[in-house]
Amino acid sequence: xxxxxxxxxxxxxxxxxxxxxxxxxxxxxxxxxxxxxxxxxxxxxxxxxxxxxxxxxxxxxxxxxxxxxxxxxxxxxxxxxxxxxxxxxxxxxxxxxxxxxxxxxxxxxxxxxxxxxxxxxxxxxxxxxxxxxxxxxxxxxxxxxxxxxxxxxxxxxxxxxxxxxxxxxxxxxxxxxxxxxxxxxxxxxxxxxxxxxxxxxxxxxxxxxxxxx
Amino acid sequence: xxxxxxxxxxxxxxxxxxxxxxxxxxxxxxxxxxxxxxxxxxxxxxxxxxxxxxxxxxxxxxxxxxxxxxxxxxxxxxxxxxxxxxxxxxxxxxxxxxxxxxxxxxxxxxxxxxxxxxxxxxxxxxxxxxxxxxxxxxxxxxxxxxxxxxxxxxxxxxxxxxxxxxxxxxxxxxxxxxxxxxxxxxxxxxxxxxxxxxxxxxxxxxxxxxxxxxxxxxxxxxxxxxxxxxxxxxxxxxxxxxxxxxxxxxxxxxxxxxxxxxxxxxxxxxxxxxxxxxxxxxxxxxxxxxxxxxxxxxxxxxxxxxxxxxxxxxxxxxxxxxxxxxxxxxxxxxxxxxxxxxxxxxxxxxxxxxxxxxxxxxxxxxxxxxxxxxxxxxxxxxxxxxxxxxxxxxxxxxxxxxxxxxxxxxxxxxxxxxxxxxxxxxxxxxxxxxxxxxxxxxxxxxxxxxxxxxxxxxxxxxxxxxxxxxxxxxxxxxxxxxxxxxxxxxxxxxxxxxxxxxxxxxxxxxxxxxxxxxxxxxxxxxxxxxxxxxxxxxxxxxxxxxxxxxxxxxxxxxxxxxxxxxxxxxxxxxxxxxxxxxxxxxxxxxxxxxxxxxxxxxxxxxxxxxxxxxxxxxxxxxxxxxxxxxxxxxxxxxxxxxxxxxxxxxxxxxxxxxxxxxxxxxxxxxxxxxxxxxxxxxxxxxxxxxxxxxxxxxxxxxxxxxxxxxxxxxxxxxxxxxxxxxxxxxxxx
Lengths: 213, 733
Hints:
The complex is a heterodimer of chains A (213) and B (733). Chain A is an alpha+beta fold and 213 residues long.
């Protein structure tokens, strides 16, 4: 099955192979040699304490643990979702010290002493936050998987506009930004909804903001 | 219950609860993060370990060797599953490629190992230490290059690859106005937000999986076959599914490897497919090359309709049925369709939202727009003129209902279609503005569906069925159905879904779920009503309303029927031959306005309207969401979605959500949806049809036609990106 093409691998071709290598008939693959395997070392751990939804939580974590996995796997706060684990989808959005972030893109141990609000901290089924209620009323979701991230983002977006933080579509950087659909769509674009509830989500947010839809 | 004659009046017709735009009953759970998805079930099994999947780094060939030594020695590693040590595994009936590859590799990122460790971080780190040597084989990855080798595929689901009526060749040759054009649609990815995920646990020889799956019974069957154990020993539980779109119709690597991993580790194992693995590891909508030929008289009557489609798939796979709608959508005496299938060694092609019609209408509905222009006709008028109320291949067979013309005319009126100008002349500042239209068409399918209903002393009605809610609104429409049938308010109904311990439903796919599953609940409720009436000693024509059962002068609380024990009824709705006697389809019209930047060619969707005729709409709020979501996915197909094929190494290059672009908030304007008032008595006692796939059908063509109207540039190769417009835009004044 070896063909001359095998020897014409581009640099890109090697890169797509990733950690694996492509064998040829002449090479002795490094990986199959009986190289001495180094003894397993336990991964380094560290203690971290932060406040989640008003409660101080102390954890000892593998330092590679993302804030997202600390919430989902260690604190069992599974309302925050893992959609891509790469900061591409926004499903993991939480509010840290008043700012929304992708919790998959940050390590838990970097948040010592900080205040984290997750979807569970905004409201409960019996006592929903106004934004949660508006999402139900406007059917601003379908499968529900991106929804906690959308809601956390929406809550933070209204605060950002109130605080005067401009966006890419703010025409006048000196003036206070307004709650318009164009502003909301721009600011919410880091939160993907594959079910395509965008039109309804914007209606929900404008409803909460008290702006005429 | 067998449904073999058209429905007459029944309790659903009261429409006191069914047909109302009710909020989703599970809404408070989804919006507060308390609806449990597959990977989150910390409560169901103690001591869960983490599995991390290793994908093949070649598209075709074989594994020459695998060295697991370093990975095994890595901290926290409990077990590693490979084809070498997994035991004998059969391939599921619904899978084309094996879910666990090796030594032979069938496609890029085919799973070849699962590393199980105490923590996610440990499993991921150890997975990167699995050393694999491959012998790369030669594969075919380029559809355009492979179409000469494409063959006539076998009939699938009773559909022949070719159809012919009259004499297409002669009629087309003789037609005074002809269109003959080629179109291409690229590979698409479902890209649902929740990755495929499973927690698996064994108790003795019994397996339970908490997973994310659209079709529970199919998947239990395939898992039994794959593992070689009885179906009775397997339980699937899938109450919440974070999107599917066809990508979760069948078992994927997560569920098989979680089961194998849990066996090897001797403890429960959870596995989610990492996002960058999903696109090449799972299925996708295959690319097509399509040729459409339309022949018409000078006044616009179609006399010849021809549609051919080429697509590719792995050996043993099937074609993308992109010609399906063309057999039914327009009148015309002389017709032909043909599908050809090439072998491609790309990841497995399979169903994605409206398989067949979605890419088929992307081509056909541009072709109709092109023909309208050749004829000098309005494209709405051309479509209206060529309506048919019967199956064009078999005129003795009528459509059960067909309001396509009303969809087109209503939409034209509401959208302000009369303001549409000739191509390339409407300006709004720097924007070239255009409007486009396309017909939407998707067949209605019904499937057998069973449910169990329980009545408690409290008057609460509990529905149990293995039906799934993939965001479609199933929980709510099933609750509405049971509430209407039993005469109780919505908050007295509990709906339990997605558990294989429940009666087998139609499942979610092919837009058959809503009508089929609620019809199953209807059947079970009819039985429960009989049991209630008998228990209470009431006349059989008793009325169920306001939480009471009334007959003559007697009125009894419904719950009293369960005073000395819960009443339970179960039934399965089955279908006779009404779908053969009548062609049951759903119809719509999409209207789109776009702006195209006159200098950069950037395309922005400014307005979207869909008008749908799809039988009784069980919940207009949830149904509207299905349609706007489908319009969004259609806008993606028109403007951005394309899996880029590496034709040398055979894989989709842009295999994550940054590379495979889907619409975001900023891409989508406010969307309007109008449902025409309909109830189709031939489909089921619910008189409903599907709508979730209808919504995507035709959208991309409407966008494409709007871009043409804005710019005068006709793009026949999707997606319509600005590079395909640059250099061809109207001169700047």
